[in-house]
Amino acid sequence: MTTLHFAEGLRELVGGVEVVLSDIWGVVHNGLESFPEACEALHTYRSRGGTVILITNAPRPADSVQRQLRKLGVADETYDAIVSSGDLTRLYVAEHPGRKMFWLGPERDSSIYRGLDAKAATLEEADYIVCTGLYDDETETAEDYRGMMLKARERKLTLVCANPDIVVERGDRLIYCAGAIAELYRELGGEVIFYGKPHRPIYERAMALAGERQGHQIDRKKVLAIGDSVRTDLTGAREFGIDCLFVTRGIHAEEFEGLDQLDPASVMELFGHPPKALMRELKW
To answer: Which InterPro entries does the UniProt entry name for this protein (predicted)?
Structure first.
């Protein structure tokens, strides 16, 4: 199928849907401010008996993500739970006690190691790398880390990527994320473990939490994912076997101008397999 369905609102798509797995950055906020209509849509869905699990590639624990959401004006009533790639990365670190870790990322992500027995080390002494992002994502790109990644490959270090996103929206700009460094390392022949979308573990954790709230195991046919990234949200949902509502105002906004006039070949080029529906921005 190559046709595109443009939905007026979330209300058109949630008949029979028990669970919504929603992306955060690009759908609920842009890093600087929240999107009131998106928050209202999720809250309205919850008020009608649905469960909303926010799934995010943020390289921080869920409670840190919640604090950021509150600062941006996203009410706790907007969602039932949060699953972050940071939580899954923390599990990896906890399951490797005594091994020395080189942390690559900005100081704001330090909460990912809170309460863990993580032994910090230099790149020359580390047993593995955890990458939560660039040291300075305002000015740097992955290429600034090529030399570091070549050294890591020589030592055959595993790189654990706590955020598979390549870029993310910050206001009206796109900034590079940990996924950009991880992809560079993989291109250089390094071993990478990815936590977060589009990889399966984050969906399995979200479904488990949704099942706890609904009181029964969730049928994937009754789940709708929402996101703004072809590479992470759409691909992840498709490979996990759930429908996806694609929000076009996010990181792909320029590519999707004039989307309603696309021919089938262009649709396939952009999406591979089209999502269940598209909206410019999430609303009820």
So the answer is: HAD-like_sf, HAD-SF_hydro_IIA, HAD-SF_hydro_IIA_hyp3, HAD_sf
